[in-house]
Amino acid sequence: MPDLVQFDYAIIRVVPRVERGECLNVGIILYCRAHHYLNCAIELERYRLLALCPEIDIEAVEKHLSVIPLICAGNNEGGPISALSQQERFHWLVAPRSTSIQTSPPHSGLCADPTAYLEHLMEMMVRLPPH
Question: This protein's superkingdom (predicted)?
């Protein structure tokens, strides 16, 4: 059995009307220090978001979401936060916010392969179950 290592993750949520508290899970950010791994997966299903909030500016939401992978990768296009260490970037990404793009509180677990576990979390937390 492969060695299990500790990881942290948070669910990325779109909260179209913060005052209502309703949200749509759209992605996962996963950080695994032992594997020097910080990555995210984002899948915004427009029809689900429009069902929750027909007047939302989806293009603006997509623009804000598009910065998250840049920050995870440490890409300069992600702004000054991208220059921080992986751990600092993760903590910045999952810090509480009152904006329309939020994350859940961080959760911890054990895994052998962070990439495979990121996909597993997307299946469990973001994607709709098959009919």
Answer: Bacteria
Domain ranges of the chain: 5-125
Only one residue has tokens 């598009």, namely 66
Tens digit of pLDDT for each residue in 43-81? 999 999 999 999 999 999 999 999 999 999 999 999 999
Overall size of the chain counted in residues = 131
DSSP secondary structure string for all residues of 87-106: HHHHHHHTS---SSEEEPPP
Q: What pLDDT is attached to residue 38?
A: 98
Of 23, 58, 53, 32, nearest to 121 by C-alpha is 32
The model's pTM: 0.94
Question: Which residue type does 36 have?
Answer: H
